[in-house]
Structures are given as C-alpha cells and as structure tokens.
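== Folding the chain ==

***
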Amino acid sequence: MTRPHGLASRAVAAILLLALCACQARQADEAPPARAAACGACHPRHGEMMAPLFPLLAGQNAPYLTAQLRAFRDGSRRNPVMNAMARNLDDDEIDALSRYYASLGDGAGVGRGSR
C-alpha cells in the first residue's frame, strides 16, 4: 500500500517541478533585456512600424538578429545610428536581445506595416 502512494507523490512532485520550470521560462521570456529600452525607441515591441527605415524586430530569427548586431558593432554593416547603438554591446547582450525579439512573435509581420 505504501508503493502506490509513493508513486502518486512522485507524479505530483514531477508535475509541480515542470510547472515551476515553465513559469520561470515564461517570466524570462517576458522580461526584456536592459538594453531593449533603447531599441524600442525605433523598433516597437508589438510590431507597429514607425517608419519604413526602422525594420520590425519582433519575431525575427534570433541567429539573424545576432549576426546583424555583431556586423553593426564591428562596422562591417554600416548605418551610423546602429553602429553607435551596437558599439558597446557585448556578445551576451547581443544574444539576449536577439532571443528577446525573436520570442515576441512569429515573424509574420516582419517587413510589413502595422499588423
């Protein structure tokens, strides 16, 4: 009789652990990196295009965003504003920004006007 109770306790513990992990992962996805506030001046979070000059970042592919930010940082991609913005970003900040913006959408609105 002790055995079924032990199995049920383990099942409940496993479910609680999974729920806790899922909750923490969702909180991490929702919290923008500290540097995202500066990005939001031209690249709004919810996909509204401010001007054709400023591409949408929400839902964009994270490896693509990482490559572009690194190119702006090292000067191999030229844009005076973005070169200045990316110049002081370290690799961890670039990776965090890329993951954050990739998590904001499915990419359906990238390159188009307001959704």
